[in-house]
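User: Some background: our group keeps a shared notebook of sequences we're curious about, and every so often someone picks one and asks for a predicted structure to add to the entry. Today it's my turn. The entry only has the sequence so far, pasted here. Could you supply the structure so I can complete it?
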Amino acid sequence: MFGAILAVAASCNLHDDSLEIPDQVEAINPDDLPSGSQAYVESNFTGEVITEAYMVTTSNKEVTYEAFLSNNANLVFEDNSALYGFGDIHSRVSLNTDDMGDQQNARMGNGNSGGMGHGGGMGEGSHNGMGLRGHPDVMPTEMLLENLPVAITDYISANYAGNEILKAFSVEWEDRIEYHVLVAEVGALRFDADGNFIDRIMRGVRMFEHMEEVAIADLPAAVTDYIGTTYPDNEIARARLVTLADESVQYQVAVMEVGVLVFDADGAFIEVLTHGMGNHNNQG
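Assistant: Of course. Here's the predicted structure to add to the notebook entry:
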């Protein structure tokens, strides 16, 4: 495990009998995630890597794990590896890049982010105490998939044919109702109260301003030539074109048993993303 312990902010009075111990958020190697959590990622997000992982211990000693993936998806697992949440739902980890993502969400969601970038209070330290990151008083409601609005299932069928819906929540606070839906191989999608698509829910150390899927046949020749020469026996799982915060553009290609290869806009190789590399870039 990485030795660094990130303390989640909490105000406390040393002479107050109601002293609340803050959650402890520890950066860990993805290989130290429970095996069931690792298997879930491998089965449902083929070819992606876990760039950073965390173990969260609450004040009453409950443990959850959070995995952040190379496609800007993040997953929250219970100690028994059951999927518990995703995106901001049940997340207790705040990354350095979350403010940028929350500003994007504010532009998408009626101009009101609700302060989701600041971690907020941590409730009473139990599972029920942290429903929505930054909104400890809001409790998302898990939905039966068959109860999702038809507009949502139609959108997913049209845009991600063959991809399984893994989990869904309805979220209501202030004057807003949203649906947050996790889709295999894709990540988390946000919809409004009428089932209209808003955007992806993206979180990660390497935050994307924009991301779009790219057909493997449409990749620049320089990219496919590099992969074919360097990894002739490894299959390409998927590819995407991403725009980063500095407005630079990259091709990211998930290659089985290798990692996610990163190329610049002209197809020149930059680096390969592998398990755990993000933890080293997110301290402080």
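Suggested note for the entry: The chain has a mean pLDDT of 82. DSSP finds four helices and 16 strands in the chain.
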